[in-house]
Design brief:
Two copies of one chain form a homodimer. Chain A is α+β, with helices and mostly antiparallel strands. The first copy, chain A, is built from two helices and six strands. In chain A, strand 3 and strand 4 form a beta hairpin. In chain A, helix 1 runs antiparallel to helix 2. At the A-B interface, strand 1, strand 2, strand 3, strand 4 and strand 5 of A face strand 1, strand 2, strand 3, strand 4 and strand 5 of B.
C-alpha cells in the first residue's frame, strides 16, 4: 500500500521480561517520560488505568502518534507499543530501553519494528 | 521470550487507504465503538486529540489492553492499532473492518498480526 502520498508510520513493539513489573502508575509514567525524552518526541495528552488486582496501562498521545505501556506483573512482563510519524532509530530505541530498564531487573528484551 | 508464564498478547495493525479519511473525532469514535463491539471487547476509558490542520488520534483503554486509531487525511490513511490480551480472530477482524469502512470509500486494506 506504499505510494508517494503515504506518510511515514514507524512502529516498534518491545516486550520486556523483568524480575518484577509490579510498578505503580507513577513509575510507568516515569518510564514513558524517559522514552519520549530520549527519542525527542512530544507529549500532548496522557491517560492511564490501574487494573485489579494488578497491571497498569499508561498511554501518551504524542505529536508524533502514541506510546502505550502495559504491564502484566503476574508474568513480569512490560509491553511497549510506539507508533510514530517520524522515523525512530531502532538501535537508539533499544539502547534507551536497556538504559531505562537495566536498573529495574531486565531479564530479556524483544523488539519488533513495523514500517 | 515465550514461556508458560507469558500472557497472550495479540496485536493487529491495520492500514486503511480511503477515498477520504478526513473524519471528526465523533466519527472516529463511532468506528472504534463498532470495532470493540464487533470483537466483544470492553471499553474502560477514552482519550482523543484533533490535530491542526487535520488528523485525529482516538484511543480506547480496554479491559483487554488498547485500541488506537490515527488518521492522516492528507493521505486518505487510517491506522488501527489493537493490542489485546485475548486472542482476536484475524478473519473476523478483517471482515469487521471491511463492513465498517466499505461505506466510507475503502480503497485498500493491509493487516499485520503480531503475537
Amino acid at each position: 500500500m506504499t505510494n508517494q502520498s503515504t506518510p511515514v508510520i514507524d512502529q516498534y513493539i518491545a516486550k520486556l521480561k523483568l524480575k518484577s513489573s509490579d510498578f505503580t502508575i507513577e513509575e510507568v509514567k516515569g518510564f514513558a517520560i524517559k522514552i519520549v525524552k530520549g527519542l525527542g518526541l512530544k507529549v500532548l495528552k496522557k491517560i492511564s488505568h490501574a487494573f485489579e488486582p494488578c497491571g497498569i496501562t499508561f498511554i501518551f498521545i504524542l505529536a508524533q502518534s502514541h506510546l502505550a505501556i502495559h504491564t502484566w506483573p503476574e508474568s513480569g512482563l512490560l509491553h511497549i507499543d510506539l507508533v510514530s510519524c517520524v522515523k525512530i532509530d531502532g538501535e537508539k530505541f533499544e539502547k534507551l530501553l536497556r538504559n531505562i530498564f537495566n536498573e529495574t531487573g531486565l531479564l530479556a528484551i524483544e523488539i519488533k519494528q513495523l514500517s
